[in-house]
Write a structure and sequence with these properties.
Elements (H helix, E strand, L loop, with lengths): L1 E5 L5 H12 L21 E7 L10 E6 L2 E4 L2 E4 L2 E6 L9 H15 L4 E4 L4 H5 L4 E2 L2 E7 L5 H7 L4 E4 L5 H12 L5 E2 L3 H8 L8 E7 L2 E13 L2 E11 L2 H12 L7 E7 L4 H4 L6 E7 L2 E4 L2 H7 L7 E8 L8 E8 L2 E6 L6 E4 H9 L4 H6 L3 E3 L1 H10 L12
Parallel strand pairs: 6-7, 14-15, 18-21
Antiparallel strand pairs: 1-2, 2-3, 3-6, 4-5, 4-11, 7-17, 8-17, 9-15, 9-16, 10-12, 12-13, 13-14, 18-19, 19-20, 21-22
Helix pairs in contact: 4-7
Length: 402
């Protein structure tokens, strides 16, 4: 038998040793220095799996960290813990310990009323077998700064740039919230997250600038610059804006670095309009890759809590969840007037779907027809159409790393 429990403060050294060796094995197990541990690794809660009757100061078999996020899904805020820093030492691997810890984590999430869980995977297939799946794609644009000169020409002398520091984060919140409102799974950031994660970098902290018009912040970007004098890259970690003018102003800011950097790299949602705005889009390289992953914690609670279109519909869904038994079964979803109930049902299902695909459908990343085409949804045409009306596709972009 094993026990899942918080990692006590007295044994934080072993937590950081496990995590350091898991993600940076080339450095070997690190020496623990509490002064070197970044604040972002102290947020949330550390958990470990321990041997049966292990004393409080025992070394865990494996560890993880939970961040207690709220995220926006279909216009409402939902508890969505972030799972991070899953690690075990070599001597405890391949014994099923991580699997048991993940199952216990989901039980804790459920007890806390969480509806979804998100993570950034080291390997997608590892977490897919436990019910998480991709929730959004992300794009990276790379170009010579000159390719962004069109933005400077478009805005002229409008507005002004102002350097921003960590203590200025409150002025950025309205811009972030305006931009994030367009995307499901955007995190409802608190002050600690702004201070200790958004303005933090694992190798160097980012620089920040805001673009203001009429003394109001309309957009901002956080970035760093790497390389030597002959080949520097400006990497934009976060870029948020309230309108097209502010977006152009931020692109113009990147162009203004043409004497200092040879390359600009911009991270953005996969639906970014940069190539549509650029007069020479062939001068901008675009790479799209899969991003974070999402899971439903409790099917009945999650589906009952979502907002729905103003339609009446009833669908009985057989959900396959081989990892946690409370999600494995048939559920009746009844929607009316923009809300719904969802409960277990003793009935023949209209549709069959695995829990990971259901999470993608619920948050808006993939439509019912797309899942049916991919072999992840088994339903007749009428049921697929009903699910498509209940769960229309919507932009999803979880931008925060953790």
């Amino acid at each position: 038998m094993v026990e899942y429990r918080p990692v006590p403060d007295a044994t934080q050294a072993i937590f950081h040793e496990y995590v350091g060796y898991a993600f940076n094995p080339e450095d070997g197990p690190p020496e623990y220095d509490p002064d070197d541990v970044p604040d972002v690794m102290k947020l949330g809660g550390a958990r470990g799996l321990y041997g049966d009757d292990a004393p409080p100061d025992a070394d865990p078999l494996c560890v993880c960290r939970h961040y207690w996020f709220d995220t926006q899904v279909r216009g409402a805020v939902h508890p969505t813990p972030g799972l991070s820093m899953v690690a075990s030492p070599p001597e405890h691997r391949r014994d099923g310990h991580v699997r048991r810890m993940l199952a216990a984590s989901l039980e804790e999430y459920r007890e806390r009323g969480a509806r979804f869980s998100v993570l950034w995977p080291f390997r997608y297939r590892f977490y897919r077998r436990y019910g998480w799946d991709t929730c959004n794609q992300r794009a990276t644009y790379e170009c010579d700064p000159e390719a962004l000169s069109f933005a400077a020409n478009a805005i002229g002398d409008a507005g002004a740039y102002r350097k921003i520091e960590t203590d200025d984060y409150e002025r950025l919140v309205p811009v972030y919230e305006s931009h994030a409102a367009d995307y499901a799974l955007s995190i409802d950031r608190d002050a600690d997250w702004w201070r200790h994660r958004i303005f933090f970098g694992w190798e160097k902290d980012p620089f920040g600038y805001a673009w203001e018009r009429d003394d109001e912040v309309r957009g901002y970007l956080l970035y760093d610059i790497d390389g030597d004098w002959s080949d520097r890259t400006m990497r934009v970690r976060e870029l948020a804006f309230v309108d097209r003018e502010a977006y152009l102003a931020l692109l113009a800011f990147c162009y203004n670095h043409d004497s200092q950097v040879s390359t600009v790299k911009l991270g953005a949602p996969a639906d970014s309009s940069l190539l549509d705005l650029a007069p020479d889009p062939d001068e901008i390289d675009r790479e799209v890759e899969t991003g974070p992953m999402v899971r439903i914690v409790d099917v009945a609670d999650a589906l009952a809590s979502l907002s729905y279109p103003e339609i009446d519909a009833r669908v009985t869904i057989a959900v396959e969840d081989e990892f946690v038994d409370w999600n494995d079964g048939v559920f009746a979803l009844d929607a009316a007037d923009g809300a719904a109930t969802c409960r277990r049902a003793d009935a023949d299902p209209d549709a069959r779907i695995d829990v990971a695909a259901l999470a993608q459908l619920a948050v808006g990343y993939r439509s019912a027809p797309a899942l049916e085409w991919a072999g992840r949804l088994d339903a007749d045409a009428e049921t697929t159409a009903a699910l498509d009306r209940l769960f229309p596709e919507t932009p999803v972009y979880l931008r925060d790393g953790f």
